[in-house]
Amino acid sequence: MGSVMTQFMESRAHISGGFEDLTTLRIFVRTVEIGNFSEVARRMGANPAMVSKRIAALESKIGQRLVNRNTRRLVVTEVGQLLYDHAMRALQELDQAAEEMSCMQDQATGHLRLTAPSMLGQAIIAPRLAGFMQQNPLLSIDLNFSMEKLDLYKAGIDIAVRIADVLDPGLMAIRLAPYSRVFCAAPAYLQTHGMPVVPEDLMDHNCLITRGYTFSTRWQVQHDGEIGHVHVKGNFATDSGQTVRMVCLAGMGIMMAPRWLVEPDLSAGTLVEVLGGYVPDNRAVYAVLVQRSGTSAKLQTAIEFLRTCFADMQ
Question: Average model confidence (pLDDT) for the chain?
């Protein structure tokens, strides 16, 4: 019995010894999230061969394979997934401790991970990013512009910029700006096909579809303070707001767009607003954080930056 217990304790100590190198654990976590040694190396400023060697050394210490390699992508094993889940939480706790200690400093420090919808982020956040980095030289920034709604816990995101009317429970949301929308079309289209008078008229028009998290053929409309939906159809769909705007400017149909995107076109008369009294006003732009993470100097600085970015949005 004693020898069995001794072997068990030695095995456990051998595995635990593989977790002492925090840098290797961080590399492993990013490898699982990204799925490519070269991309992990690029984002962490390292050599791809070094990343591969670190993972191999970790597997050797643990005595089990953590990821399976093929020519296209790394695939995490069951053991690797177990280690990832625990390592991610442990590293987040360590990062949180570092962030809270940084509150005592005058300048924000650390690694800031942000995500935002691609079109909104590229138009509103990206032009101001260089100035923010110059003002905060001790921050390193990992910025993800994507249509994908990332899990803040799993992806290790500090702040997510989201457009929403309802937010996930358990998250802290800071309202940055209203998110006004508009129905609009080119004058040439309306001259040929007529002006819709009530939302139901949209069903008889060619509606240009912008895909979000789902294929958005149910357009929200507002009437007497109540939010409803109209089922629309058309001959064009895309996940690019700028592309659907260009198609709309060419007179191909009616679009539902964020007002900030088409305001210059409306002012110039190249697009005309329709159904103005039926536009829903239930959405806003939020900075979303996990509830326990909103007190560090790094995050407070980032939130103030985002407030500045969206200050002029109507």
Answer: 83
